[in-house]
Amino acid sequence: MELSLFNILDILGTIAFAISGALSAMNRRLDLFGIFIIAFVTAIGGGTLRDLLIGSTPVTWMENIVYVYLIGLVTILAIVFRNKLFYLRKSLFLFDTIGLGVFTITGVETGIQNDLNPIISIALGAMTGTFGGVIRDILCNEIPVIFRKEIYATACIIGAFTYVVLYDLGVNSDIIYLATTLIVISIRLVVVKYHISLPSFYLSSERNSD
């Protein structure tokens, strides 16, 4: 079977999110079963939501068992080489960022290929990119990154918007895939490096005490 760049990116995103899920689970000291579950739902969460929203069933990982085997293999490797992965500085952030960038593009591409409105396609890209991480964080009893001050979903939206613009301009699809994926990843790297965040709003302590 000949793999397109789209398929390769989808597989790369699955691998990246599976590793980020496994690392999160090990950070929370979960048992072997818990590690596999977190890795699995992180890897397939965004793609599953994407497929369900456009009515594409069975969803990709149910239709192609290779994804299940791939997630299992990657999780085992993450466990075996956990000390090496933890030694890599901010490895969880790295794999999460790769998965975010790749899945955002597969989401917006799916929307466009299904003739959805560009705004809906952008939203689909953002949801595909972020949903797996949301599930991972909730199951690991953490506030999802998307709900914190960090620029996370915004990076997805910018990348997806760029994808739509380049697509309308007739740019080669492979160039669009690579360029927009790198845009999402680059935004995440820059905002974390320079501590750029969105403003947060909250009630004052005086009002809360009333």
Automatic annotation (TrEMBL):
Domain Glycine transporter: 8-82, 94-167
Entry keyword set: Cell membrane, Membrane, Transmembrane, Transmembrane helix
Domain of life: Bacteria
Localization annotation: Cell membrane
Cellular component per GO, a single term: plasma membrane
Recorded topology in the membrane: Multi-pass membrane protein
Name of protein: Trimeric intracellular cation channel family protein
Organism: Christiangramia crocea
